[in-house]
């Protein structure tokens, strides 16, 4: 975390290069146009280094923050270090933010909202919001994960979160991470996060093709996609000690596993009360391709857009003096998108509306603020990854709607309202991109394909705000490892920063179109 924060200032300065006019980026250096070619080449080299910095920072982020809990901790620490103040959701905010400022809150440790609000803000000014999800497809330990040994193999009972436990999860090195709730010696209840990175503790072994049909699948997720975590020759007693028997989870989870996570948490087994633990791919992401055109990494959906949005928001916030600012900018990161968002920490849980309401009341010094007026003057970006063109399956993509790597963010479109982008939202984001010198791409499914979903329609229906679904394109969505362009993280940061800077200016041009 500290290493990442140390280069924030460097990236803030160098990201200014990304605001060069887009026309400069499109110049053919072999043409006869009157431009200093040496200067142009120097700019491109510098920009390439910047994109690589952003890519490598993202790779480190995905490696060091494997669960949703870890992502919320990362965002909290990053913004706190840069001048944001924490607001517990269960306390009155009025006195804390009556004069505006920079703040953040969390819910359940797995959803996060931060905002910058000026002292001179009023409801008619609306708010500019970027909302993304930070949960990723994973495998979770069951409430009772203990299973009978099979021929000496110790197995782990797990459940799929989203569409996991398929063959993509076979033969991967799986670590364990998540949240531990424990009781201190004085009786108080605390929690801590654990992460076994870089060490794997489990593997789901595939069956060799020599065995014929049973190796080909389909596979039973309950009985044939079971992680192995040990063998009977493993050192250490299989019987809990008298002290360990005080733990309510003894008998529900392997004593070897409880000892392992207790050691990581620096507590005794007897102190553990409850856990929320994931298995995840411990292999670190990397730059790939002959010219390092790609990022190959786990958990792109959706640590990718959420990471870029967090950086764009933070860079915007650092330049704002709330004493003479009349705006209101929000970053919202939600859990549970992959399973429908219908939870208190999901996009349907009301965290965004709660934050906007509390902040509005406090700054306006009143208990009566019409939230519909606020949202009617607002724009929300629903930032979620979308499908990059896969050259091995070109027939499934719609012509002129097939995003490529290293070009720019992609607008998601769907006439059946699986995406929130309508004609006004589309025109808005295109005008915003023109103002900021950003290239846009478009994704639309073919008529014979089914569409996925995002948090966009849910947020749009709850707030009534103009909402755009867009994001960074990726290959291999919902696989345990995926790919995106190596320049796409930097392009995403630039786009999201530009949104916070100019959304209101562009929005006012539309005048209730």
TrEMBL record:
<feature type="coiled-coil region">
    <location>
        <begin position="1"/>
        <end position="28"/>
    </location>
</feature>
<dbReference type="InterPro" id="IPR001948">
    <property type="entry name" value="Peptidase_M18"/>
</dbReference>
<keyword id="KW-0482">Metalloprotease</keyword>
<keyword id="KW-0862">Zinc</keyword>
<dbReference type="GO" id="GO:0034270">
    <property type="term" value="C:Cvt complex"/>
</dbReference>
<dbReference type="GO" id="GO:0042802">
    <property type="term" value="F:identical protein binding"/>
</dbReference>
<keyword id="KW-0378">Hydrolase</keyword>
<dbReference type="GO" id="GO:0070006">
    <property type="term" value="F:metalloaminopeptidase activity"/>
</dbReference>
<keyword id="KW-0645">Protease</keyword>
<dbReference type="GO" id="GO:0008270">
    <property type="term" value="F:zinc ion binding"/>
</dbReference>
<dbReference type="Pfam" id="PF02127">
    <property type="entry name" value="Peptidase_M18"/>
</dbReference>
<dbReference type="GO" id="GO:0000324">
    <property type="term" value="C:fungal-type vacuole"/>
</dbReference>
<protein>
    <submittedName>
        <fullName>Uncharacterized protein</fullName>
    </submittedName>
</protein>
<keyword id="KW-0031">Aminopeptidase</keyword>
<keyword id="KW-0479">Metal-binding</keyword>
<keyword id="KW-0175">Coiled coil</keyword>
<dbReference type="GO" id="GO:0006508">
    <property type="term" value="P:proteolysis"/>
</dbReference>
<dbReference type="InterPro" id="IPR023358">
    <property type="entry name" value="Peptidase_M18_dom2"/>
</dbReference>
<dbReference type="GO" id="GO:0032258">
    <property type="term" value="P:cytoplasm to vacuole targeting by the Cvt pathway"/>
</dbReference>
<comment type="similarity">
    <text>Belongs to the peptidase M18 family.</text>
</comment>
């Amino acid at each position: 975390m500290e290493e990442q924060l140390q280069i924030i200032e460097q990236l803030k300065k160098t990201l200014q290069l990304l605001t060069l006019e887009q026309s400069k980026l499109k110049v053919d250096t072999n043409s006869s146009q009157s431009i200093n070619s040496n200067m142009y080449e120097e700019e491109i080299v510098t920009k390439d280094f910047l994109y690589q910095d952003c890519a490598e920072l993202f790779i480190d982020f995905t490696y060091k923050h494997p669960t949703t809990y870890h992502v919320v901790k990362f965002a909290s620490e990053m913004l706190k270090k840069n001048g944001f103040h924490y607001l517990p959701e269960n306390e009155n905010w009025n006195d804390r933010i009556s004069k505006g400022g920079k703040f953040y809150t969390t819910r359940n440790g797995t959803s996060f909202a931060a905002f910058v609000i000026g002292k001179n803000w009023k409801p008619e000014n609306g708010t500019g919001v970027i909302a993304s999800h930070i949960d990723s497809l994973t495998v979770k330990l069951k409430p009772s994960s203990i299973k009978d040994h099979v021929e000496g193999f110790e197995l782990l009972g797990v459940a799929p979160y989203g569409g996991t436990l398929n063959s993509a999860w076979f033969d991967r090195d799986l670590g364990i991470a998540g949240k531990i709730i424990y009781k201190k010696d004085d009786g108080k209840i605390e929690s801590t996060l654990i992460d076994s990175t870089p060490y794997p503790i489990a593997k789901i072994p595939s069956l060799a093709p020599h065995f014929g049909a049973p190796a080909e699948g389909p596979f039973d997720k309950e009985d044939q996609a079971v992680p192995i975590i040990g063998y009977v020759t493993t050192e250490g007693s299989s019987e809990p000690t008298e002290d360990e028997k005080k733990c309510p989870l003894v008998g529900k989870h392997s004593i070897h596993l409880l000892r392992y996570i207790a050691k990581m948490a620096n507590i005794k087994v007897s102190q553990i009360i409850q856990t929320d633990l994931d298995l995840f791919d411990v292999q670190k992401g990397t730059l790939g391709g002959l010219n390092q055109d790609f990022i190959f990494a786990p958990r792109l959906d959706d640590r990718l857009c959420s990471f870029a949005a967090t950086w764009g928001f933070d860079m915007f916030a650092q330049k704002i003096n709330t004493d003479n600012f009349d705006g209101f900018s929000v970053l919202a990161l939600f859990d549970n998108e992959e399973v429908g968002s219908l939870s208190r920490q999901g996009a349907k849980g009301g965290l965004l509306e709660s934050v906007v309401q509390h902040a509005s009341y406090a700054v306006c010094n009143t208990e009566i603020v019409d939230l519909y007026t606020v949202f009617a003057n607002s724009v929300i970006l629903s930032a979620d990854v979308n499908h990059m063109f896969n050259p091995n399956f070109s027939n499934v993509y719609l012509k002129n709607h097939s995003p490529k790597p290293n070009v720019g963010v992609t607008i998601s479109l769907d006439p059946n309202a699986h995406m929130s982008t309508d004609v006004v939202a589309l025109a808005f984001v295109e005008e915003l991109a023109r103002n900021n010198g950003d290239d846009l791409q478009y994704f639309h499914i073919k008529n014979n394909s089914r569409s996925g979903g995002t948090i966009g329609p849910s947020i749009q229906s709850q707030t009534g705000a103009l909402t755009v679904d867009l994001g960074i394109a990726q290959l291999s969505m919902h696989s345990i490892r995926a790919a995106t362009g190596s320049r796409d993280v930097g392009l995403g940061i630039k786009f999201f920063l530009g949104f916070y800077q100019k959304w209101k200016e562009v929005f006012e041009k539309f005048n209730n179109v």
